[in-house]
Each structure stands twice: as structure tokens, then as C-alpha cells.
Amino acid sequence: MILFHATCFRLPANHSPDHSSSEQKPFLTNAPRTGKLGLGAAMALCEKDHAMPGADEKLAALGIVLPPPLKLPPRMELPFPWVNVRGDRAYISGHGPQEPDGSLAGPFGAVGERVSLEEARASARKVGLSMLGSLKRELGSLDRITGWCRVHGMVNSALRFTETPAVMNGFSDLILEVFGPEIGRHARTAIGVAALPLNFPVEIEAEVMLGR
Questions:
Q1: Helix (H, G, I), strand (E, B) or coil at 182
Q2: What is the pLDDT of residues 51-80, one digit of tens each?
């Protein structure tokens, strides 16, 4: 085993080499670097310092606040959970778009008729925020999600409207932005339907993998 003093050198973004001095000073990291370590352990420590932020941290960095539970219309009851955890999977019921206060988010109606493509794409992103809110309440932390398996999107479509994948990109872009390409990549379906509950322009369900 090769033993050495592990020191991770990190250069700032605006660093320019100074050839007048042969001494290179390390930038201190959060973890101590004074013990003798094997090569593998030293590399693991360095990688930990440079690890990508988790989903919870990424949301905070982006300034995204997730909406509270959906405020249902009077006399409307839903006899199922928004998130159903079974073993290492979480099955997410169909979600619609929400406003930051938890109320239903418009515009409402068929895409390609009363709702434009860009409005529908924005609604799909709001569906993603609604879904992340439900997941965080159920799981305690979005960092428990180790992979997005599948996403099934339904778009309230006008006759002959065929740009359902472009609508669903609003959702997929959010998931990739928050979770990154490794955890966030997912299989996806984007279908057009004649109508949706509450006249939503978009409804989305999904399945994710969980860690401890």
C-alpha cells in the first residue's frame, strides 16, 4: 500500500500560474488532510469535497420554494395518497400545476386551443414543483431519491395538437436541473387526451427509486 499525506489542491477560477515561486499552497477544504492514507481513501476524501450538491441543496441554491399541499375544491375528496412508498420505490399519483400558495394554477383548458404551447410548458414545470413538494413531505428529504424511473405525462390537447413532448419538456427540464443527469434521467411518455380533471392543461405521474 502506498502511504502519503493527502492534500487536495484546489485552484480558484481566476487563478493564473506564478512561475516565480516553486511553492504551491493548498486551498483548505472542509475535511482534515493530515493523516496517512492509502491511495483509494485519499481519492475518496478528495471526491467528497468536490461532490455535486444534493437535490435539497440545489433547490435552495436556485431559490425554489415548493408549494404546500394542494388546496382541493369544496366537497372534493381523494381516497389515495399523493405518494405511495413500497420498498425501494415511490409511486407518485397524477399531479396538476399549483400556485406557490397551494391553490390550483391556470391557465385551464386544452393546449392548442385555450392554452398556448409556452403556457403549457410552464404548467408542466409547475406540476414538477407540485410533485417535488409531495415527495419532500413524504420522504423528509429529496436526497433519498436515487433515480427517476419513469414519467407519464398527459396533456389536455385540442384536436390534432401533436406537440405533447414539447409541453412535457417543462417537467423534464426541472427534474434534470434539480437532480442532475445521473439521478434525474427518466423514461417518459407524453400523450394527448381529450380532457383532464379540473380542466388542467397537464397532469403527470411518476415512479422513483429510493435509498435509505
A1: helix
A2: 667 999 999 999 999 999 998 888 888 999
CA distance 107 to 125: 13
72-108 pLDDT per residue, tens: 888 888 999 999 999 999 999 999 999 999 999 999 9
φ/ψ of residue 28, rounded to 5: -70, 140
Q: How far is CA 74 from the centre of its chain?
A: 31
Sign for the pseudo-dihedral over CA of 81, 156, 99, 123? positive
Supply the pTM of this predicted model: 0.76
- Note whether 207 and 89 are within 8 A (CB): yes
Can you tell me the distance from the alpha carbon of 168 to that of 154, in angstroms, rounded to the nearest whole number? Answer: 9
| Cβ contacts of 76 within 8 Å, gap of 6 or more | none
The C-alpha angle with vertex 30 and arms to 29 and 31, in degrees rounded to 5, equals: 95
Alpha-carbon distance of 154 to 176, in angstroms, equals 19
Give me the numbers of helices (H) and strands (E) for the chain, helices first please: 4, 7
What is the set of domains in the chain, with CATH numbers? 4-51 (no CATH), 83-210 (3.30.1330.40)
Cis peptide before 107 (omega within 30 of 0): yes
The grid cell for 27 is 486551498
